[in-house]
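Exam revision sheet. Question 4 asks you to relate a sequence to its structure. Input first:
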Amino acid sequence: MHPDDVVDSLDGRRALAEGPVHARARDSFFADRRDPGARLRVCRGTSCWLAGHRSESPLVPPDRAIQCAGYCDRSPVALQPDGSVKRMGSPAPLDPLPEIRSLARRAIVTERIARGDHHEFARAREAGVWRTLERALHGEPASVLQALEASGERGRGGAGFPTGAKWRHAARSPGAEKYVIANGDEGDPGSFIDRVLLESDPHAVLEGLALCAFAIGARHGIVYVRSEYPRAAERVERAIADARGAGLLGPSVSGSDFALDVRVARGEGSYVCGEETALIAALEGRRGEVRARPPYPTSQGLFGMPTVVNNVVSLATVPVILARGATFYRDYGVGKSRGTLPVQLAGNLRRGGLVEVAFGPSLRELLYDFGGGSASGRPLRAVQVGGPLGAYLPESQFDTPLDYEALAGIGALLGHGGVVAFDDAVDMARMARFAMRFCAHESCGKCTPCRIGSTRGAELIDRIMLGQERERNLRTLVDLCETMQHGSLCGLGGMTPFPVRSALEHFPEDFGAPRAH
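Answer key, structure tokens:
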């Protein structure tokens, strides 16, 4: 379903008047509008790029390249016209489920999918999905909010903001309507847990969304799925239909006076729409541009009404917290990082896949005990945590614990839990340029530091690699990163300096003459 149709079907309102000007504005922004139609699309995400496929090559036109197909553990891949994904050079479609392991006492997010696919309604119900919502409907919304706040869960989309605090603010905010949005558009190259959950455990995501709607007093829910995940969108749509048919969604959820209508909106090819205000703009029929905050979406979101936007993993975790108790959840993790995180291992590793861990183990444990070290047999030189905007960490920092505060303490971020490993053949100057080019390609264009800075940054790195006025260009690059970090409107431009600065700090030898390959 197109976002315009979702907007109309919710309450008939339009944020913008219809007309050719608005249509052209959207057409010029969203990649899928510029080149509609089913076609083979080649992934140029970090892992696929590392695996040897250079999507900037003349052999792959820009309109055939996507930033991530969600199979980072099995790179390089291509998204087929029928929605399946194949590894480059292989005729067989890949299994949607990656290898799944756990370092937690008991898995939370991946418990069901570790036993296989659960997108079918009957199997999901047999495994206990929707029971937590049915029990919650016999109580008060306040009890849901209290349990979530006590658990200490933080949003898994990257910001790490306490989920309970976000819901509480939306519950207190007045509005004629309220909305809950499951953000399935956070397509960080190197991350794939959203795709896996939406495809193989969609009922868990829907139950978490429904619990949020019950807690804040919302009657409308939207699952926003990025266009690169067509199978996920189809399975969520089917899951919604099955749940509605069973009376678990609709005008009287499980026979109660709680009503909830849930729809799927498909993204149209924009990474920045993973940012909540840009996502809301897209749903309102506008260009997916970010807006300044405050006001926050929890008070003025979709159509100016209180709106909770939560990541897919965050929502899928909620039923477990309510079923097993806040204390159970808080017993996992360290410090302010409670619960578990499904870490996504990709890049140059022997064993990629999902590893659900309680916060606390070191990166070294993940890379070697679970990832098996480098696939090439060469020493691991660096790792990027938190997606394409995460810092590049050298081997000397591999003993850093996996938690929000520990990573922030070394100038890194946890992000969506993606971990991409690099062996000692990597050129970190090229990776810094890759980060700048990613930002330039995905910028919404609203603020100058991100729109212009990313392009100028890539140009500066090119000159540095060619040895042109190296010291002068290095100083300019550092100054540019400072401007982007503090002057950008959202995290895309604000965090792009993280990989660039870390590459400059930890791998200065790579910013000289071009390396031979």
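Marking note for examiners. The chain is about 40% helix and 15% strand.
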